[in-house]
Write a structure and sequence with these properties.
Length: 420
Amino acid sequence: MNEAVPSVVAIDIGTHKVSVLIGKVHAPDNIQVIGMATARNRGMNKGKIVSLDKVITAIKNAVQEAEDMAECRVHSAWISIPSAELKSFYASGRTPIENSEHTITTSEVVRALELAKASHLTSDHYLVSAVPLGFELDDSAEWVQNPIRMSAHSMIGHYQLMMLPISTMQNLDRALKGANIGVEKMVVSCLATAEASLLKDEKEYGACLVDIGAGTTNIAVYLDGRLALTHTLQRGGEHVTRDIAAVLQTTTEEAERIKLLYGCVDLKVVKPDHMIQFQGIEGPQTISRIELAEIIIARYEEILTQVHHELQRNGAIHGLYHGVVLTGDASQIEGMVNLARQMLGVSAHLGNPPVQVYAEEQNQAALRRSQYATAAGLLMFSQSDTQDTIVESTDPGKLSVFKRVGRAWSALNNQLKSIF
């Protein structure tokens, strides 16, 4: 690698795979991938580490292959944090403005955040992100986006907190140390995926990223350029595979094979006479593609029903002017876009490949696959000044935080941003 050109490494640790990208940074919006690889991860289940040694092996294998391609050695990287156990909380902190002029300073803003965090932090969870939603001055119904230098007798800071179990972070740290990888920064996986998959206009005017991975489905709603809602469902592509294996009485390996080759969630495109041969537990078997599709559709409808419920519960469904953007390996199945449109009642399309991250022509097609979306987002994240995460409120008695976010964060104040 030409050391005169800054480089950055991204490692995405997923349920079924570890993906690695090594990029040369020519400019913040011009990152050339010179090394890339994926390795099978057999040490995780539903986004959780169940075998530390197997995760370490997967990281080492992917890193080594990417190193060989780039002709360099990796010592540290940007890491995606699996979000299967992510917890999101709405929190607020009230503080009096005690100086003689009752003028709000950075000290009051920081104090409000500390009070909000104190009400939710537990000894067994790690605070990944704390994001200001808005500030309420003297119990006013309208929130302001930047209270500094404004006058009030009291101020309530409204925030959203994102937390993960300390054990999860410790296990991830041990896996990286075991693979001899230092950490530049950790980013929640759904943030990195959104960075790569959503256009600026989609973030500005309202869009929901639905990332269907192997073990989980992550929801990320953007409004006014900021993340307004995150949620993780404990369902993903591996559940579809298990359904097929159970119904057809075959192995998970064979179920995965026929799912990838013949899977579809749109009966309109399936020919009635299309038959599929597969190896059952008791020997060779035959099934129509329509029957296979019906097995698969049942699980995808369950996933999308849960997505729709979460969007409705938070009022987010009404702000999706750019609809739903689908990403993740399990969203690539034939007919998925049409099914999402039907189930969610909004427009839908597959994720946009990031133009800022590219590779030489012979590797460009591979880089555009969904398996590299999160890692590509990490590369972009490393060069951007991206805002922290905003997540949903759990207080139904007040005006929804989703609506408040639209009011309070229509613009971003640089001074307030620097505090957090």
